[in-house]
Amino acid sequence: MNCRAIFYTLGCVLNVEAICMLLPLICTFIYQDNMFLTFLACILICASIGIALIIKKPKSKTIYAKEGLLIVALSWITISIFGALPFVFSGFIPNFIDAFFETVSGFTTTGASILADVEALPKSLIFWRSFTHWIGGMGVLVFLVALLPLSGGSNMYLIRAESPGPSVSKLVPKVRSTAMILYGVYILLSVIEVILLLFGKLSLFEALTLTFGTAGTGGFGILNSSIADYSPYIQTVIGIFMMIFGIDFSVYYLLLLRKFSDAFRSEEVKAYLGIVATSTLLITINIFSIFGSIKESLRHAFFQVASVITTTGYATFDFEIWPSFSKTILVMLMFVGACAGSTGGGIKVSRILIYLKCIVKEIKVSLHPNTIYKIKMNNRTIEHEVIRSTNVFMTAYLMLFAISLLIISLDNFDFTTNFTATLATMNNIGPGLNKVGPTQNFSIYSNLSKVMLSINMLVGRLEIFPMLVLISPHTWKK
Amino acid sequence: MNIIIAGCGKVGQKILELLSQENDINITAIDIKSRVIRDVVNEYDVMGIIGNAATIDTLNEAGIKSCDMLIAVSESDELNLLICLIAKKLGNCETIARIRKPEYAKEIDLLKDDLSLTMIINPEFTAAREIARSLRFPSAIQIDTFSKGRIEILKFKVEAKSALHEMRIANVNNTFGTDVLICGVEREEDAFIPNGDFILKEGDLVSIVASPHKGQEFFKKIGVKTNKVKDTIIIGGGDTGFYLANLLVQSGISVKIIEKNPERCEKLCQLIPKANIINGDGTDNKLLLEEGIEYSDSVVSLMNIDEENILLTLFAKSISNGKLVTKINRIAFDKVIRNLDLGTIIYPKNIAAEYIVNYVRAKRNTIGSNVETMHKILNGKAEALEFIIKENSPVLNLTLEKMNLKKNVIVACANRNGKVIIPRGKDEIMIGDRVIIVTTHSGFNDIEDILE
């Protein structure tokens, strides 16, 4: 195993994190919130360790699948540990585990918080908290690949391990160009959203932080009431952009290339839009009695559906008081998640489609045992290998879900709370139901549960296997 | 530059390896086997597409419309032609096809024009030509030519009792009264671009730059035989053997071919009447001794199995002082094979791939790069590049001493109006010079890349 290359890449990741912390540092100058020393200390720590790790270049930068998975898993744990430092140093979240939970929740774009009063934080810290969403949304290593001329095609192992979806492929022949295109689209969409939010009379700070939360499909708000206190215009813009960031980014690339027919062919995106439309309709009818007007109920229903299916977790309304039917739909959408290749989490629409097609195939095979049937997506046969790994993904997902549920049940809360807490962290959504509902937070849990939920978030964001590889004894055997 | 490579066999993968490292070349690889594509995409920075490259759908998916060059190197000659034909119809790209069957040897020119192919590559033939060249100059392990043959880079081994052993490089030309430049030394695993203080040792593989004439002279003065071989034994009468025998017979070298298959022997006998065809097993040492392997000037092992070729060469080495050439198909174990000290080793797949890569780079000249010729030397660890110096080049009007060269770069040689000069510290580069640069950096596109 090429340990030197792993440490080298970790060093690069830490340096990127140090650079990212410069933004909140600028913030402290603007808002004079006495956070200068905190961020300076964090930057120095990250940069010094980062530079120490990259000062000696590894003999060979060649990495294989194993190193790729390890680098991704370790990088995410590392940035979360160091990203938690500002919270601890500033004294606003003195308990390190709490701070770690909050940072993991940021980077994995979950948006689950242990803070009861967000507004009490200094501006620069809020900025950092939201900015972690933006970094984590597209991924740190994708950024690294776009930025650094790392050699060889082996970088694809990094992107594949970090990007969500059953099969990750390139948009263009060069890995680096692919990563640049992804970030280019990401930045472009973010800028558009910021501008639209500025039109809604938000301050630049609010527009930026809310955009970070939307773009990464994260969900950290800057007000205790999440999005509920903003104007309908702002809510609509955020709602629509959550939807946009939940769509496969290659679609936007195809649109930019003016390959419209290719862009609109994606079965996954059609299914995603279909699910959103149906769910919104059903919830609108169901909650009509609460709001009394179609417009109001439609707006809230759409926002909540978009927020949950893209795994963002913003709330315009405490859906805790909605009828059970609506809540159940929302819980189901939590499982579904966004499209593969987007910044959203969850199981992913494409996997759900593959599962449905597998069931259809199984029925046909049981009726005609000798039939030959290929599962297709976008008019293309899906390789057996992909189907197999998709199925195993589900099995692993359910098992980890059960383990996590069991461990946090030690805290003796009710089943709905525990179940939705696990669900909300594993699918990177944020709020669940009952005691972890949209107006509540995760501070009620014990340290053990918080660690477990943090692991859930990482497992969810990295789609299970990089984290399993990390703890597997096979990895560390020579 | 967008390139499509159809077929990812050994040649295809070698081309991918060499070209995917270049920043401005985007490669799409097509193969019908999904496993192959998966491996290729994992190993090299390219896009992979699974499918039959001779179909419109696959080619369209690979972006044939915006493609500058298509290289068809699949298993079958006929398929390669078909791919090029369809590609030409779909997009306006250059096409290169691998055609290897000797039956088509004569038809090649005809095919080339009618199908508007840019280039046809025959790995067996290029390998045979390479072997023939090394037999004409047996002391060199490897010969790379530049400037249309006016400049050569020759690689040879410092033998145990050589006068070069323990000699400082700065003293070499003074001691022997020669005019060559030592541009590279390989010692065990390492490759150096040496300066004057470097001390040569026995067992080193030394690469020199010189004109062919000066090179000959150098070998003579350091006491190495330079006569071309008079006779050769070719073991294995496959396609490469056939091409090689033809080339050698034409240049007056007496050829003996040992081939196992009687029908093949009959055919070879008809095709090359001047060659002496022996029907027998090339691994049978009694037969080899009977045919005078001990006294032959050279032995070329061209059988289909690498291991047999290696064993055969080792056997020949133990009893003969002749020049030995071994053909190896599998590229993967080249490090181990190099340590066996087999003399000249020919990798037909590598040669074919490098041939195509050279063409691609030369092609790129028109799109911004200025490399005229490029050879990988020092076992692939360094590149020797040829540039033509144009007006306004930043290297003009500076003596070599004053040039702020990058590390591990040397200006090895210049061809000024047909005169070959080994430039020294006080020399300047002039407009119109063809300059050879040797460097361990890769991806130089212009002469100004040599400067810091």
Q: Which features would summarize this protein structure in a list?
A:
heterodimer, A: 478 residues, mainly alpha, two-stranded antiparallel ribbon, 2 strands, globular, B: 452 residues, alpha/beta, Rossmann fold, six-stranded parallel sheet, 22 strands
Commentary on this structure:
The complex is a heterodimer of chains A (478) and B (452). With 478 residues, chain A is mainly alpha-helical. In chain A, 66% of the residues lie in helices and 1% in strands. In chain A, helix 2 (22-31) runs antiparallel to helix 7, helix 7 packs parallel to helix 11 and helix 10 runs antiparallel to helix 12. Chain B is of the alpha/beta class. Helix content of chain B is 32%, strand content 25%. Chain B has helices at residues 10-19, 34-43, 56-61, 77-90, 108-114, 123-136, 169-176, 212-221, 239-250, 262-271, 285-290, 306-319, 334-339, 348-364, and strands at residues 2-6, 26-31, 47-50, 69-72, 94-98, 119-121, 142-146, 151-157, 181-187, 190-192, 205-210, 231-235, 254-259, 276-279, 298-301, 323-327, 344-346, 371-377, 382-388, 409-416, 419-421, 434-439. In chain B, the strands form 4 sheets. Chain B has a 6-stranded parallel β-sheet, with helices on both faces. Chain B has a 6-stranded parallel β-sheet with strand order 14-13-12-15-16-17, sandwiched between helices. In chain B, strands 7-8-11-9-10 form a 5-stranded antiparallel β-sheet. The mean pLDDT of chain B is 84. The chains are: A mainly alpha (478), B alpha/beta (452). The A-B interface holds A 65, 151-157, 170, 172-177, 383 and B 20-21, 26-28, 34, 41-47.
